[in-house]
Each structure stands twice: as structure tokens, then as C-alpha cells.
Amino acid sequence: MAGAALRRLMAEYKQLVTNPPEGIVAGPISEENFFEWEALITGPEGTCFEGGIFPAKLIFPFDYPLSPPKMQFTCDMFHPNVYPDGRVCISILHAPGDDPMGYETSAERWSPVQSVEKILLSVVSILAEPNDESGANVDAAKMWRENREEFNRISEKIVRKSLGL
Amino acid sequence: MPLGILNRLPIPTLTTYSVISAALFVSLIYNAKHAVENPDWKSEFLTSDKNSSDIIGDEEEEHLIDLETINLPESIRDILFYMIQDNFSRWVFVNAVTCAILLLGRMIQIIVFGDLRTIEIHIFREKLCNYFLYKCIFMFGVIKVQTTEDVIFLLGWFGILGFLQIFVQFSKDRLEYMATVSSRDTFWDRCKIVTLLLCILSIASYMIYFCLTNGDNLGYNIFAFMIAECLSITLRVPHIVIKYVIDPFEAKFIRNQNQRFRERNVFANFIISKMEISLTYYISLGLDLADLCLELLHYLHMVLWSNALFSVASFALCMHVRYLTTEIQRKIKKHRNYIWILNHMEKEYPMASEKELNENSDNCAICWEKMEVARKLPCRHLFHATCLQLWLEQDTSCPTCRYVLNMNGSSIRRSTTSRQTTRGVIRIGRAAIPLNRQHFFHFDGTAFFPSSRYVSWLPSFSVQVMSTMGAPELSDSQLETMARQVQQIFPHYPINLLIDNLRQTRSVSVTSNNILEGLLPFEEPNIIEESSQMNRTISDVTEASTSTAAYSPTQENENISESYNSNVNIKECEFSSIPAEREITLKNRKEQLFLNAKQKYLERRLVN
Ligand SMILES: [Zn+2]
Ligand SMILES: [Zn+2]
């Protein structure tokens, strides 16, 4: 069934090229391996991540789209829903079977109708509005709640670094 | 700690190793020739041989006879005979043969596989260690070989088998990689691998034949030990060929036929597709199970034979037996679940009618392909039968609307959920240690007490060594190019100052950060001038963008707001059918995104 995964990824890639969402570029790192993508996400306007370009790696399982891909930022990221090593923790990236946080209903989890585009758009939306129920990065969640100014200062630094400045 | 040494054994030393063993071998031949010239040498040996031949096992005797019957010039036969008799030269001979086999393996690897990917090298080392470990356990813990002849004979036997096993594994990995990951056309690579597999198959069958003809001499136990692995290879190779070579072609063929027949009879082609699925499914399942059972029997046999229940060897063997039984149980459970879902779908979810298919213009939401035949869920959503089947194996809701499907029959439902959990566990395992699943001798390190720690930390240790070595001193020319990069953004900084700072930071971005934070003291021009510098910076970036992104027709002295419109340019990209073109387009789009963001950022700083 892996051929099906490849065809589906190709279709998604095509859609992302011909009809790209605002501020998002994504595609396979190498045409040799369609199961590893790099995505560039622009920080949403009007938020503390505004203007940054955040690269992330997407690793697809061979039974995609039955199982969700994994997503990991390859740049510095300080965010309540991103683990310190860059892994993104959002509900639609969790397989229907496992529930690490124990709070999601199955309706919020992965399903084959999700797509790379939907994943990246939801990541943009959590950049704008962190979901502080999931404590992927406890320090960041705490700072987001209690010391917004410091949080903004750090994210400003991350934005600048992401642009190579 | 043979494991540790093996693990860190770097592959490039193959050349030095072969040079050394070639030199040893040549000196041995010279020595032998010298000795053979003495007319009395044979009788000397034969007298000493009489004493030892009682100890030598039956199979060894046969080998010596074999050698004498080989049709060779007398002098060469004498030399060979001499080399096999003397204890030291025998080991040199074995070493030379090993080296030749390694070189042959290397050659096959270069011809058939080309460059290995890093993961394949990693798997190769792990396999080698595991294989070596289990064979040591087998030879010294289970059958407890005594004489050098037996050791050499078994080493040769398992050496050849290990050689074949490793190439089977390589072929499997590579075919899987080609079938799933790569989008390039790989017809010739496939042909090469299939030829290799056929060669392996014929060697393995010859080995089986050898076992069968010499079975009486060997004794039943040794015979069973020796034949088990050959059989497993002969099972595995057809499995691989069916799964990765024949199956894709067949699928393509059936798809074409489906398209031809689709108008005539929806139901008939549904049956065709179903037959195709079940046929390859059952063959693959059967071979899988047969292979696992064979291995299980082989290990059980070893445990029983070794007879010492509390030795380290039998402990390791028992762990492996446990792993094999759970694996077999998992396979069977999965199969029952599969059958149940198949029946359930047939009963509960009807085929969508022609009208429904026409009304629903969307593609299948799971594979994004057009639906010629589909099944309908109670929530009126349509999917391909095969897609739906695969999804229902792991979840019991509609993929589109999350309608919870009523999967009755509580006992079987429980098996579904338990399968889910095992799946989850496996998925985690695959993510954390991707190599673990591909052991052909699964080694549960936690049970095998003294070496368990080494098994777990050695690979990561060697990786760390490599990564720390990869940070050499930066050369002056490298520093200068980096400094020029920084200067593009901060043109008023003198290059010497930047080079000095880069020598410490070793990174363009860190130095730029230092400048932005005012850590690099430099007599600043007055504020108005600085803002003009900023302007220049921005126009520099724009220039850079026009030079890198050749397809965006921007003019040189264009202002910032206009260059934003080049955003529009990237929006209307064509999706090329040529992989190389797609790669270039993607790279350009990424660069464009970066440059636009940089401009925007600098502009915003200017405004504030
Ligand atoms: Zn489908
Ligand atoms: Zn539905």
C-alpha cells in the first residue's frame, strides 16, 4: 500500500505548489525521498512571531495517510505547544489510538482527511494562539500566562534568528 | 567485548585488512612451496594425521577427501594439502578466504546497490554484530565445538549463510525504499536486485541439497541446525520478490484492466480487485508465518539441545523464542481482525450505487483518487473498499465526519482495540529506534545482562564521536566568504572586524545578532546616515533577491513595496512533471519567501 502513500503525497505536493496557502512553502527535501518534507512557515501577523520564517521537518509514515506524520521545528522555537527539541504537539498530529495527554476526544485527532496543508495551517494558528492546556513546554506555557513581556522578547529574538539576522 | 570492537570497526579499513591478509597469504604460499619441495613432507604429515583423524568429526573427513578428488595440478594440490594440515597456516588460509568473501561482498554491493545510505550502513553493522553474537552462542554455548576443524567448518558454513542473509536484507530494504520512497524510475536497479536474489536463492538451494546428501554423516541434530537457515532464506527470497516486484506490476495491470472494464460491470471488476488483494495477502501472510515458525522451531531445538537451562546462552535463546512467539501471535491476531472487518464491511456497508457515485464528485478522502467503485458508510460518506478496510483496522469512525461506527460483537471489538494499542507501541518503537524492527536476530538487550548496556549505548556513542570530529578549524577563505555575507546586511562594517568576530562565533547568524545587539563596537555614523544605510541594506537584499531568483523580473532600483509584489510571482507556480525542475522551483520559492520576510522585517525596524 506504500504506493498509495506516494501517490497521495504527490497529489498534496502538487496542490501546495499550484495553490499555496499564504506564507507557507512545503515540499520534499529531496525528490529521492518523498517521505521527508521541509516546510517553511511564516509567523502570523499581529502576533509575537510576526515576520519570522520557521523551518520544520515533516516525516511521513509509510502508511500515510492512515497514520499522521511527525513534525519538528528545525529552528529555535519557544512555544507552549512545541517540545524543547522542536517536536510539535497538536491534537491532529496524534494517531487515533494514542493519547499522550489524556484530554483529547478522538474527534480532534488524526484522520486521513487531514492533509499537510491543514496541519501547517493549524500550526500557524497555534503560533498565534497557543493552547496552554497541552504542556509540551511547561516553561513556555508558564511564561505565556504570567510574563507575556518576557515571552514576547524571547519570540522576537527567535524571529530575528530565524531570518538569519 | 567483541561487540564494542565490532561496532566501531570502521568500514574503510577493508583495504588495509585485505592488504595485510594478501601479504600473509602470499608468504604462506611461499612457505608451503618451500616445504613441499622437501620430498619427505607428506609422510611426516600423514603419520601425525593418523592420530588426529580420530578426533576430527565425520564431516571434516569428508572435506579432506573432497579436496583430494578435485582435479588440480599436483603441485597446487600439494600446497593446498599442506596449508590445511598445519594449524597456523590453516588460520591464515581461513583469514584469506574471509577477506576474499568480504571483497566479493563489497564488489556486489558496489555493482548492485551503488552507494549505501547511512541507515543501511547502520543496519549492516547492527546485523553483523547480532549475527556474530548468536552464532557464537550457538557454536560455543549450544553445540560446544571442540576441534579447530569443526570451528572452521561451521565458521565457513555460517559465514556463507550470513553473507547471503545480509544481501537478502539489503535487497529487501532497497526494494522497499524504491517501491515506497523514491519517485524515480528504477527498472534496471530492480532487475539487478532480482538477479542477485535469484543467485542467492540458488546458492541456498544448493546448500540445502548439500545438507540432504550429507545428512547421514552429520547426524540429525546438526543436520537440522544447518538446514534451518537455508530454508529460511529460500522462503524469504520468494516472499520479497512477490511483495516488492510482482505485486506492484500486478497492481498496475489490474488497475489498467479495471479502467477498461469499468463501464461494463462494476460488480465484476470489484471482484477482480478483491481477488487480487486476497491472493497476494494470503501468500505474503503464509510465507511470513512459515518463516517465523521455522525460526521458532530452530531456536526451540537449540534450547532443548543445549540442555543447560540456566546458562547465559539458553537465556538469550529463550528471550528470542519469546519474541518469536509474540510476533506469531500478533500476526495471527491481525489476520483475524482483517477477516472480521472484511466480513463486517460486506454485511454493513453496501456498495454505492451508480447514482450516488455520480452525485458525489469528490475523490476518495483517504487516497485522493477517483472512485469507480465505493462502499457507503451509514453517514453517507463514500470510500474505496480497500482504503476503508485499512482505516477500519485502526479506528472505528468515519474519517470525514467522525461518525462513530457501530462495530457490534464485543469480543471481536476488544481485539480491535487491543490491536490498536499494540500498533501504537510498535509505532513508538519504530520512531525511537528505527533499526530495532529489522533485526533478523532480534536481540532483547535488557535480558542479556552483561552486554545489554553496551548494546544500547555503543551505537549512540560512536555517532557522538563522529559528530564531534566534524568541527574543523575554519580556513581564512571560509571566514572571508562568511564575512562578505554579513557585510551584505551591514555594509558599513569593515571586513576585518567581521572576520575577527566570525573567528569566535563561527556563524553568520550569531555575528549578525551580535551586531544587532550592539555587542560589536564600531563608531556609528549619525542617525540619519544610519537610516540611509538601512535603506541601502534593504536595496541590497532586493538586489540579492533579483540575482538568486532569476525568474522574477524585478528591476534594480525598485522600491520595497513593489518587490513585495514578487510574492504574487511565487503564487502562480506550475507543477512540473520533471523532478529536477520541481526541486529548483521549490528552492526558489523558499529563497523568495526568506528574502521577502527579511525585507519586511528590516522595513518594520526602520519604521519603529
Ligand atoms: Zn481511496
Ligand atoms: Zn461520515
Question: Could you say which structural class the secondary elements and strand pairing of chain A correspond to?
Answer: alpha+beta
Please give the alpha-carbon distance between the first and last residues of chain B. Answer: 64 Å
Percent helix of chain A, as a range, is 25-40%
Number of strands of chain B: 2
- Greatest chain-chain contact: A-B, 54 and 58 residues
What is the overall pLDDT average of chain B?
A: 69
Proportion of residues in extended strands of chain B? under 5%
If you had to describe this structure to a student in words, what would you say it looks like?
The complex is a heterodimer of chains A (165) and B (608). With 165 residues, chain A is of the alpha+beta class. Chain A has a single domain, classed as Roll (Ubiquitin Conjugating Enzyme), CATH 3.10.110.10. Chain A has helices at 2-18, 116-128, 138-146, 148-162; strands at residues 24-30, 33-42, 53-59, 70-73. The model of chain A has no long low-confidence stretch (mean pLDDT 86). Chain B has 608 residues and is mostly helical. Chain B folds into five domains: 12-43 and 59-115, no CATH class; 117-307; 336-469, Herpes Virus-1; 476-516, Helicase, Ruva Protein, domain 3; 525-607, no CATH class. Chain B has helices at 2-8, 14-36, 41-53, 58-69, 74-85, 87-113, 118-142, 148-180, 187-213, 215-218, 220-261, 266-306, 312-348, 354-359, 385-392, 410-432, 449-469, 476-489, 495-505, 508-516, 527-548, 560-564, 566-571, 579-607, and strands at 375-376, 382-383. In chain B, strands 1-2 form a two-stranded antiparallel ribbon. In chain B, strand 1 (375-376) and strand 2 form a beta hairpin. The model of chain B is unreliable at 48-70, 409-472, 523-538 and 541-571 (pLDDT under 50). At the A-B interface, helix 1, strand 1, strand 2 and helix 4 of A face helix 8, helix 15, helix 16, helix 20 and helix 24 of B. The complex binds zinc ion (2 copies). One zinc ion binds at residues 377, 379, 381, 398, 400-401, 403 of chain B.
